[in-house]
Amino acid sequence: MTRTVSLFVSCFNDMMFPKTARAAVKVLNKLNVKVRFPDEQTCCGQIHFNTGYAPMAVSLVKHFVESFRGSDEVVALSASCTAMVREHYLELASRTHDNELISRTEELVPKVFEFSEYLTGVLGVTDVGAYYPHKVSYHPTCHSLRSLHIYHSAVELLGAVKGLELVDLPYAEQCCGFGGTFSVKNSAMSTAMLADKTASIVNARAETVVAVDNSCLMHISGALRKNGTGVSVMHLAEVLAQGMDGGEI
Amino acid sequence: MKSEMAKAKTGFPFTSIEQINNSQLRANLKSATSAIREKRAKVVGEKQDWEELRRTGERIKDEVLSSLDEYLLQLEESVTKVGGIVHWAADSSEANRIILSLIQEHGESEVIKVKSLTTDELDLNEYLANHGVSAFETDLAELIVQLAHDKPSHILVPAIHKSRSEIKELFENTISKGRVLGDGPAELAEASRLYLRQKFLSSKVAVSGVNFAVAETGTVCIVESEGNGRMCLTLPKVLISVMGIEKVLPKLDDLAVFLELLPRSSTGERMNPYTSTWTGVHPGDGPEEFHLVILDNRRSHVLADPVGRQALRCIRCSACLNVCPVYERSGGHAYGSVYPGPIGAILSPQLFATEASLSLPWASTLCGACYEVCPVRIDIPRVLVHLREKVISEGYKSKSEEASFRLIALVLNAGRRFDLIQQVATRLRRPLNRLFLAGSLPGVLGKWRAARQIPEIPKETFRMWWRANGSDNGN
Amino acid sequence: MGATMETSGIKSSRAAILELVKAALREKSPSAPSALAGIATPGAPGTPPSIRKHLEQSVADLFEEVLLDYKATVRRCAEHQVPSVIAELFASQEISSAVIPDGLDRSWIEQIKGIELVVDDGFRSTGELASIDAVITGCACAIAETGTLVLSCQPDEGRRAITLLPDFHFCVVRSSVIIRGVNDLFKHVSVANPITLISGPSATSDIELKRVEGVHGPRNLFVIIVS
Ligand code: SF4
C-alpha cells in the first residue's frame, strides 16, 4: 500500500533551504511514499508565538490548519515547527472560540510528524540505502531533543548510512544559542553560546554537522563559515538522500 | 518611554555583557555547573520512579495552590495549637517590621540567620542594620557574600562566583584578621566554624526561612548541609521563621515526597546531610518561643495568573540554574534579583515587575533544559512565552518590532502572497547576497552578521521547483 | 481564631492576604494540553543496573554502602559485640569526653576506657555540651536508600543539642529499624518530637562546589549496624 503524505517544508526552508525539501521528497519517494505539497502552506507561526505575538500567531495557526485540511499525514522538515504544532496549536486554536477550527486542529495535530520521526516511527525504516563516506557529528537541536524526544531516531538513521562515521559531539545537548529573536535581542549571550558550540564541533573533528532544524544549522554554519573552520552543515534529510540513484538533487 | 525599552541601558542584554566577558567567572561557573549536573543525573538515574515522583510533586503543589486560603488557615490553626505564634505579612515592609519588633521585644541587638532566600527578598539584613540590629549569616556561602558586601548569585551556592583565593583574602581581612590562611576549601570552612561557634552559643534569637510547612500537623521543615541550620533551630531561645504563602503542604506524607525530590535535584545527593522538622515548641528541647511569619509580597498576584502561577510550585532546588546555558554564561547577578536563572526569569517579572525585570522573559532560547530537570515540572519555557505576550500586551514593546511582525504575518497569511515576495527576493538575490556578504547592514541583520555569515538566497524556492518538477517525483 | 497578634494592622493583613488569595483563584489554570505523546522512542532505557542492584540488596547492606559514600565510618556486628566495637572505635580516636542520653543501654559503654562520661540530664548548658568531644546514641529509625539516621528524641537518642555540639557522633542502629526508602518515613516516626535526619557528616560545597566534610555539626560520624 502506498501512503501519501503532505509535506510541510516550513517558510524558512522554502525560501532559504529548498535543497533540504528536495532531498526529503527523494527519500520519501524511494520509500514508496507519495508526496503532496499543499501550496497554500506558509509558516507554523512559531516566530510570532515565541517572540510574544501570540495573537498574530493565531491567524497563522488557522492558515496552517486550513492548508493541511484533509491530509492523511503531514511530514514537517523542522523539529521546532513540529513541536510548535504539537505543544501549542490546540491552545492557540481554542483562543478563537471557533469550534470548527478547534475540532479541525484536534484532528490534524496527531497527524503531524517530524521527518526522522516519521521514517523510524511510522514507516519503521532505519536504513534508507544512503551512502555518505564522511565523518559526521549530530547536533540534537533543543526541540528535537526535549519536545519531540527523537534523538534516537536521528542517530539510528545516521548509523545506517553506509560509509558514515558518527563522531561524538561534546556538550551535544547544549543549545547553540539561536532561539529565534534571542540571537539578536541578546546577541552577546547568543554569540557566547555559539562560540562554545562551534568550539565543540571543531574539537569533535567532524567534516559535517547534521541536525533536524535548518534554523539552528544556519546559526551554527554562520559562525563555522565566518571563522573559516571548513566544517559544513547538513540537514538529516540531505544526508539520507546521498548516494541514492539519480545522483545530485 | 515604554516603547523605548529595547534601547534602555537596563535589562538582561545589558547587564549580562560584563559577566559574559569575565573569563574567571565563566570558568568558575562552567566547572561548577557541569560538576553538579553530573551528580544530579547520577542520583536521579538511581530512582526508577523519578518521573512518577515529579508528577506527584507537581500534583501536590497544584493541590495546595488550588485551595491555598484553606491550607493557610489550617496551618495557622495547627501551628497555634502546638504553641507557635503565627503572623501575617502582606509585603516586605510589614514582614520586616514584625521581625524587628519581635527581636526588640527580647531586648536583643544581634540575631543569627539560616540561609533564606525569602529574607534576602525582604532585604531584611539591611533593614535590621538600619534599626540597630546586626544579623549574622551562618551559611558559609551567605557569610562570604555578607562579609564581601556582595549579593548572592545562585540559589543554592550564593557565592558560586567567588574563587577560593578571593575567599581566602576576604577571610583574612574579616573573620580571621591577623591570621594567614591557606586557600584549601577545608581550611576556609574551618575558619568559618571557629568564627561562628561563639555566635551560635551566645545568640538568643534566630531567623530562618522555611522549606516546607505541613498544614495538618503544623510541622515546619528545613533542609541544609552544614549544621548551621540545626544550630540556629536548636540553640537560641527564640526562633522566627519566615515563609512565602506557597510553602505550605497538606500532609506529612507529602513532605516525604519532597524530601526525595529536593536533595537529588539540588545538591545531587541522595539526601542532604541534615533535615530538621519541628512541630511548635518542644519543652526542654530547642527554642521556647516559635514565630511563623507568613508572607504574601505579591505571591497572590502571581497566583492570579492561570499560566504564570505554576512558578509558585518552585521548591528552590536550583536544578534549572545548573542546566541553563544562559545562566552558565551570565552568572546570577545579571538577573538583578534574588531569584536568578530560569526560575528567576519567570518569577522576578511577576513578583517585582521592575522595568529591568521585564526583559527577563526574553533572556532564554526556550531550549527547555530547565523544564526537563525541574522536580515539580514547572514548564518554564511555556511561562516565559506567556510572560513575553503579557509584557507586550501591557505596552512594554518596541513599536517597530511589532510593525515588522505584523507585516510578516500579513505576508504569511496567504500562500500566494508569500510566493510573490519570495519570487521578488529570488530575482534580487545577486545584489542582496552581495549586500549580505559585505555591504553595510543596519539593525537586526547587522547584529546577526557581527558573529555569523548570512546564508545566500538560492536561485529558486522549493515551491518554484515543485511547480516545475513536483509531479515527476513518483507522485 | 488562631491569630494571636493583637495589633489591628496585622489582623487586617491576614484578612487581606486570604482575600487576595481567594480572588486569585477565581480563574482556573488551563488544563494541560491533551497528551499528544508523539511516537514512542525506540530504545527506552530499561532498569539501570545500579537500580537493580539496590533493589536486590538487603536494607542493611544498602544502608552501609550509602553511608560509606558519605565518608561515614561503618561497623557491622552482633548485639553482644556492641560494647567492644564502640570501645575499639573510641580507642582509635582522640576523644577524652563523651555524653550519652539518659535512656542509652549502659552495657554499650562498659568497655570504653579512660574518658570522662556524662549522662545528659537535660539541663547542661550548650557551652558545656560544646566542650564535650563525643556523643553516643541509639537510633529508632534509619533509611537505607539515602543512608539516613532518623533521630526523633527517643530516650536513647536524647535532645537535639547533644547530637549537634560534640564533634564525634557514634550511633548504634539495629538492622530491624532500617526502612528502605524515604516514602513511608512518617509512618515510622511521629512528628510530636522534633526530628533530625542525618545523612553523613556535616558538609559544605560552598567553595567552588568542592565538598568539605565537616562544618558546624559533628565532623565525624560512626555508625554501628547491629544484626
Ligand atoms: S523552578 Fe524547578 S528546577 Fe528551578 S529552582 Fe524551582 S523547583 Fe528547582
CATH class of the largest domain in chain A: Alpha Beta
Alpha carbon gyration radius of chain B: 26 Å
Q: What is the oligomeric state here?
A: heterotrimer
What molecules are bound to this protein?
iron/sulfur cluster
Instruction: State the domain count of chain B.
Output: 3
Classify the secondary structure makeup of chain B into a structural class.
Answer: alpha/beta
If you consult CATH, what is the topology of the largest domain in chain B?
Answer: Rossmann fold
Please tell me the CATH architecture of the largest domain in chain A by its name. Answer: 3-Layer(aba) Sandwich
User: What is the CATH T-level topology of the largest domain in chain A?
Assistant: Rossmann fold
What characterizes the major β-sheet of chain B?
A: 6 strands, parallel
Counted by DSSP, the helix tally of chain A is 13
Order of helix and strand elements from N to C terminus of chain A: EHHEHHEHHEHEHHEHHEHEH
How many H/I helices of chain B? 23
Provide the CATH superfamily of the largest domain in chain B.
Answer: NagB/RpiA/CoA transferase-like
Second rung of CATH, namely the architecture of the largest domain in chain B: 3-Layer(aba) Sandwich
* Main beta sheet of chain A: 4 strands, parallel
Mean pLDDT over the residues of chain B: 93
Measured between the Cα atoms of the first and last residue of chain B, the distance is 56 Å
Q: Work out the strand percent of chain A.
A: 5-15%
Our count of domains of chain A comes out at 2
Strand order across the largest sheet of chain A: 2-1-3-4
